[in-house]
Amino acid sequence: MAAQKEYENKLQIMVDYIEQDGHEKAEEIDVMAEEEYYMEKKNYIEKRIGAVKKYYDNLEKKFQQQMVLDISKLKSQSYRNVMNSRNMVVENILKTVLDRLNNLDYPDNECLYKKVLFELTLQGLLQIMEPKVVLQVRKNDLPLIKKVTNQAQNVFHSLTGMNVSVTVEETEFLPAKGKGGVILYTKSKSVSVNNTLEKKLEQMTAQLLPRIREIVFGKNPNRRHND
User: Fold this and answer.
1) Which residue, among 191, 192, 170, has the nearest Cα to 183 in the 3D structure?
2) Count of alpha carbons within 13 Å of 192, Cβ hemisphere only?
3) Taking each helix axis from N to C terminus, what angle separates 197-217 and 2-102, rounded to the nearest 10 degrees?
4) Positive or negative, the Cα torsion across 10, 12, 15, 21?
5) Dihedrals phi, psi of 195, to nearest 5 degrees
């Protein structure tokens, strides 16, 4: 009986040890599981926060980009509106000049128009520099051009020392609805100079347009060229 009792005591000690060890192992497992849980939870939360932050960062970046594009579009549209308004002002100035040209050959302006025809004829002669030149004008300008040809020939001779014979074309004329002026050409028509008022206005517009813009709107500090 004593041996039996001792055996049972030893067995109980082993059982108690196993139970104690089991409890300790279970506690270790619980601690490790809890640590892993919190670590996974922390990583998950950090990933989700990172994903949300990245999402809103991308939204903010897209918003900034769109805002830049919208501002650029508004600036471009504003610039186009300003340029259109300026072009309208310049066109009105040129239209005013054109309207004055329409009135240049009225009887009240005959002396002025006669002087213009003389200047245009002399200028053309100095450009062609040929001994024989034909002048073409509107039909209703024939009386005036005939009054200035001799004077133009004489001034040309005094300036160049050359003699020039000027003939006025009396069968073919410039359009009656034109603004006036003169076209000069050689007999063979191999050389010609267009000194009509439309052509001169076109040339002067191309040359003076930058200056007109500067006078009307002021100098543009961002403009590097004046053409």
Assistant:
1) 192
2) 13
3) 130
4) negative
5) -115, 35
Kind of pairing between the strands at 132-136 and 165-168: parallel
The amino acid at residue 76 is S
Query: In angstroms, how far is CA 60 from the centroid of its own chain?
Result: 31
> Which residues face 174 on adjacent strands?
138
- The reported pTM is 0.53
pLDDT at 146: 92
Beta-bridged to residue 178, according to DSSP, are none
State yes or no: pLDDT of 189 exceeds 80: yes
Report residue 138: phi and psi, to 5°: -70, 155
| pLDDT tens figures, 78-99 | 777 766 766 676 667 666 766 6
Cα dihedral sign, 7-13-15-17? negative
Structure tokens at 77: 């549209």
Element (H, E) at 195: strand 192-196
Place of tokens 């069968």: 171
List Cβ neighbours of 196 (8 Å cut-off, separation of 6 or more). 174, 178, 179, 180, 181, 182, 183
Question: 226 Cβ partners below 8 Å, 6+ apart?
Answer: 210, 211
Cβ-contact 193, 183 below 8 angstroms:
yes
Q: Which pLDDT tens digit goes with each residue over 27-50?
A: 777 778 788 878 887 888 888 888
